[in-house]
Amino acid sequence: MAKKSNKTRKKPAKPVHPRKPAKPNARRAVSAKTRAKKQPKQKFHVSHHDEAAFDQGLRTYAKYRDLGLAPATGGMVQGHVIRFIPPFVPEDVAKPHYHDVDLQLIYVLKGWYRTEFDGEGVHTFEAGSCWIQPPKIKHTVLGYSDDCELLEIVLPAEFKTVMLEK
Ligand SMILES: [Fe+2]
Fold it and tell me: CA 49, CA 67: separation in Å to the nearest integer?
């Protein structure tokens, strides 16, 4: 039989730290299931390199290879490889503008690319460089190498570009 404790002294009262109620904006890991409810359904998609896929589109100074991300993500993302057409002609390319996006990420695949950003100065990016252009940041392309190729990922797939006066 267990010996009965004959301690009668009361323990000192513990300080009370009531639990704070969780803030609705508290940073928390959101499960993939929860995210999926808010975003369009995605489907498995592959795009292999294809020289014939480079399309000049509306611009005279670059060809675009669409990676097919927009239909695969229900319009959430677009991605393309941009291959610039030499030589760099400032009158055609160096026009201040911004893009009304949620996210714009660029990665240099080949060559180099130079841009001036409002409040951030002039940056020259080389193969392996990656940057994010915050939504609506004003920028002007100042140059690119003859072999320049960029990978660009933009959210959402459809967005507006606003050209500005010099
Ligand atoms: Fe731009």
Answer: 9
- Please report, for the chain, the start and end positions of each structural domain, with discontinuous segments joined by +: 50-163
> What SS3 class is residue 16?
coil
Name the fold adopted by 50-163. Answer: Jelly Rolls (2.60.120)
pLDDT tens digits for range 99-118: 999 999 999 999 999 999 99
CA 34 / ligand 1 centre spacing (Å): 33
Cis, bond preceding 18 (omega within 30 deg of 0): no
Separation of alpha carbons 65 and 80, rounded Å = 5
CA of residue 16 to ligand 1 center, whole Å:
56
Contact yes or no for 157/76 (Cβ under 8 A): yes
How far, in Å, is the centroid of ligand 1 from the Cα of 125? 14
The pTM of this model reads 0.78
How far apart, in whole angstroms, are the C-alpha atoms of residue 159 and residue 2? 76
Distance 26 CA to ligand 1 centre (A): 34
